[in-house]
Amino acid sequence: AHPLVAQARQAYQEADFPGAQDALDSAALATDLTREDLIEVLEIRILVHFALGDAFSFHSELAELASLAPDHELGPEASQELRAALAAVVEESPGPLQLAVRVAPGPDAVEIIGEARRDPTHLVRKVVVRARSRGAPWRSGVGRVSIRFTDAPSAVEYHAFAVGLGGAVLVARGTREAPLLWDPARERYRTLH
């Protein structure tokens, strides 16, 4: 676990709720959390706010957890009441967070557009979209990126990811190592058939 997350868990276990909250706030401001770290941050926040009797906050964080990781099981510190509350929130949830990526071709460029969906609690801070013509350097944008063609349209590799608190990648479509591909030749073939 991330050191700040481990610090927050230790403080919670020692019933140092202000110390846990401080460590959680610091973790949320970090830039190197993983998705698993963020899930743990949410779980510890739920536990702290439940212990403090802050029903509004722990219900809000249950909704965030249900959106990010609906199959997550709370740890052994969680009461049956919290487990039942999470199950109810998951049941009412619109479903897990999703990332939609759309390709919008034009006559001299193609635009790749990324959009978070099923994000009722606004976990996503930004969607990063990266694209390139095959073999060219990657271009990045927030929410969208355009690749211009100097000659005829050529194949474009792309990927996108949604970033949340602490810089955690919440959901991704494709990766730099295994990008998605838009191929104008295949697109023309599909429109003819």
Notes on the protein architecture:
With 193 residues, this protein is of the alpha+beta class. Helices cover 40% and strands 26% of the residues. The protein contains six helices and eight strands; from the N terminus they run αααααββββββββα. The strands form two sheets. Strands 3, 4, 6, 7 and 8 form a five-stranded antiparallel beta sheet that branches. A three-stranded antiparallel beta sheet has the order 1-2-5, with no helix packed on it.
The total strand number stands at 8
Describe the biggest sheet?
5 strands, antiparallel
Overall radius of gyration: 21 Å
Q: Helix share of residues?
A: 25-40%
- Per DSSP, what share of the residues sits in E-state strands of 2 or more residues? 25-35%
Return the string of H and E elements. HHHHHEEEEEEEEH
Instruction: Based on Cα principal axes, name the global outline.
Output: elongated
Could you tell me the mean pLDDT? 92
**Helix/strand structural class:** alpha+beta
The rounded distance between the terminal residues' Cα atoms is 51 Å
Number of helices: 6
The assembly state of the depicted protein chains is: single chain
**Poorly predicted runs:** 189-193
